[in-house]
Design goal:
The structure is a single chain. The protein is of the alpha+beta class. It has a single domain, classed as 2-Layer Sandwich (Alpha-Beta Plaits). Helix content is about 25%, strand content about 35%. The chain has a four-stranded antiparallel beta sheet. Strands 4-5 form a two-stranded antiparallel sheet. The model has no long low-confidence stretch (mean pLDDT about 90).
Length: about 80
């Protein structure tokens, strides 16, 4: 089953392609979506991995990973309710 991860603290130079290339080191990337934070204008994104095991590997590998001068924040995506 696919699993989506939240990725924050991204550099303004980050692209969907660069994020997909990085996360592909942990397994099969199903999709990457980047958007801008409305308050700061900085990018944040979501990476969907093909399996639970690959998502866990990505969490281990890339939480705090240095990318373009920033340390990535990677966490489990949790849909907002309410």
């Amino acid at each position: 089953m696919e699993r989506k991860l939240f990725v924050g603290n991204l550099s303004v130079e980050t692209t969907e392609a660069s994020l997909a290339q990085l996360f592909a080191q942990a397994g099969d990337v199903v999709s990457v979506t980047l958007m801008r934070d409305t308050a700061t204008g900085l990018p944040r994104g979501f990476v969907e991995m093909a399996t639970e095991a690959q998502a866990e590997a990505a969490l281990r590998l890339f939480a705090g990973y240095p990318m373009a001068g920033q340390q990535l924040f990677v966490g489990e995506y949790r849909r907002r309710t309410g």
